[in-house]
Amino acid sequence: MISLIKYVYFPEITSTQKVLLEDLKKNRVEKNICYWSDYQTDGIGSRNNKWIGKKGNLFFSFVVDKNEFLDVPIQSFSIYFGWILKKLLNKFGSNVVLKWPNDIYLLENFPRKIGGIITNIVNENLVTGIGINTKFALNDEFGCLDIDIKNVKILEEFFNEVFEYKNFSKVIKEYKKEFEKTKDIFKIDGNLNYDGALIKNNKKVYSRR
């Protein structure tokens, strides 16, 4: 059972995910550690796209033992962590939704992406990176969080939820309801399977992240 996580803050960093992955592969860090910053200059998003963020937003990556989450399908960790983050932000008054499989959006006026989740697996380790526009949007195509909350507060509350939740069947059951309400908005063709995959033309489509 994970009881704590160590936080390492960087005033500026290229990418919390890239740096943490590199440090993990070189045995510079162990499990249960989180690298975070409010200024990331070379972030990565889904399918190796760049996630450019303004100073003041929240960027963090963490490594945990994947065996702590045995009921989570390997392809669905971003859904799992994304849903926990989404519910946490909702609890504090935000209207964010989770777009399959790993993006955080606001829907007011028009869909605007405010964040995303990526997960890599290194041996027995999960290395998950999350970026969220808590204060500023890059341009009009993106959005920023619709509540006023400190980045540190999000971090602390998120990990409290992650280490206590541990129930993928509950996550996917809850998310399926939101998926059905939003899939037309996001122009998603298919249905959500119990393991987090998208069923399209009788075939499973898995997230690459």
TrEMBL record:
Main enzyme class: ligase
Superkingdom classification of source: Bacteria
Domain BPL/LPL catalytic: 1-187
Gene Ontology MF term list: biotin--[biotin carboxyl-carrier protein] ligase activity
The EC number(s) this enzyme carries: 6.3.4.15
SUPFAM superfamilies from the UniProt entry: Class II aaRS and biotin synthetases
Keywords: Ligase
Record's signal peptide: none
Gene3D superfamilies recorded: Bira Bifunctional Protein, Domain 2 (3.30.930.10)
PANTHER family in the record: BIOTIN PROTEIN LIGASE (PTHR12835), BIOTIN--PROTEIN LIGASE (PTHR12835:SF5)
NCBIfam families referenced in this protein's UniProt entry, alphabetically: birA_ligase, PRK08477.1
Protein name, per record: Biotin--[acetyl-CoA-carboxylase] ligase
Protein's organism: Caminibacter mediatlanticus TB-2
